[in-house]
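Can you make up a protein sequence with its C-alpha cells?

===
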Amino acid sequence: MWDDGNSLGPKEVHSYLTQVMYNRRNKFNPLWNSLILGGVKNGQKYLGMVSMIGVNFEDNHVATGFGNHLARPILRDEWHDNLSFEDGVKLLEKCMRVLLYRDTTAVNKLQPLDVMKKKLRKKILRKILLS
C-alpha cells in the first residue's frame, strides 16, 4: 500500500483478519469462512485460526470444521515438537481417516507438501483407505 518500510507479518495479518471477521459478525453479516493463517517472520513460526464469528487462537496445530472437533484431540495426543515429516504425514493420514469415517462421501486423497527454508517438495498423491 504505502512504501513506508513496514511489513506485516503473519501475526499482524491474523490480528487484522480476526477484527474483520468479528466486525462482520457484529453487523449480522458474517463471512461464512474459517481461516487458517501460517507464516514465518524473523525466524519465528506462526500458525493461527479465525472462525466466521471472530473466535481466534494460535497453536502448533489447527483445524477447521469437523476437523476441529474430531482431529484436534488426536493431534493433541500425538503431536510433538520434533515430529519428522514422514511421521507428520502418518499422523495427518490418521486424522483424515477419522474424518472420512464421519463423512464417507468426501474425497479420500491427500497430497502432502513439505515447505522448508524456501524449498518445496511435493509428495505423491496418497489415497486414504478405510479399514
Q: What stands out?
A: Residues 108 and 116 are 26 Å apart (CA to CA). The first helix runs from residue 10 to 26. Helices lie at 10-26, 66-70, 72-78, 85-102.
